[in-house]
Design a protein that fits this description.
16 strands, globular, about 220 residues, single chain, four-stranded mixed beta sheet, six-stranded mixed beta sheet, alpha+beta, about 35% strand, tt1808, chain A, 4 helices
């Protein structure tokens, strides 16, 4: 079993019997599965990230993205925004991960493209299927996963749009929306810093206000 571990002097024990996707899912649903850190199964490998989050460029940026999208879901009645910590599974492509955010339309739930399953007593602890949008906020430890591994894995899982956001360089903020082409995701062209989501029928622009307490704002129109 190939394993990629990105750590911050922490430790995680992967049971020896975790050898493939099915055994990973059994581990996921067992009491042995770790409560902290990101543990994913992508392209036949267990990927573990125990790194601590950076305050502004990751945690606060992700919070701003979630705030805007959650409000937009209420305004448009399009669907739901699921924030970081929600487990996603796509059995057909043997993918299990926790993205920084997902947009799940009411239509996807009605049509059965997405199911909410798992847990005890009727709890819904896993998103299964093909949500409309996946969002990843890039950090130093996740850069390769978000830009390479996840890109192809999310395409294979039928995700309609993939948003990749990187706020680490205040002089070169990255807010990219990738849309499906025939064989892969392709970047949506920007105009004046704005990039359009065909799924949400809105355009977005990420800005950073400087000063003593820098703050991200995701503008929408």
């Amino acid at each position: 079993m190939d394993t990629v571990i990105v750590t911050n002097e922490q430790q995680i024990d992967i049971p020896a019997w975790v050898a493939d996707f099915e055994s990973f899912r059994r581990w996921l649903e067992s009491e042995e599965f770790p409560e902290h850190g990101k543990v994913c199964f992508i392209h036949g490998k267990v990927w573990v990230d125990l790194s601590m989050e950076e305050f502004l460029s990751h945690n606060m940026l992700r919070t701003e993205i979630g705030r805007v999208l959650a409000n937009l879901m209420k305004e448009t009645k399009f669907g739901h925004f699921a924030s970081e910590g929600m487990r996603y599974v796509h059995p057909e492509t043997e993918l299990s991960t926790e993205p920084d955010g997902m947009v799940i339309s009411h239509a996807a739930l009605r049509d059965g493209r997405v199911q909410l399953v798992g847990g005890k007593k009727g709890d819904q602890t896993q998103v299964v299927g093909s949500p409309d949008i996946f969002i990843e906020v890039v950090s130093r430890s996740s850069e390769v996963k978000d830009s390479e591994w996840a890109m192809s894995a999310y395409f294979d899982a039928g995700i309609a749009e993939y948003w990749v956001i990187d706020g680490r360089d205040e002089d070169d903020l990255r807010f990219d929306i990738f849309k499906r082409s025939k064989k892969e995701f392709t970047a949506t062209r920007k105009q004046g810093g704005w990039v359009r989501s065909a799924v949400l029928e809105r355009s977005f622009r990420l800005v950073l206000a400087g000063g003593e307490r820098p703050e991200f704002t995701l503008e929408v129109r």
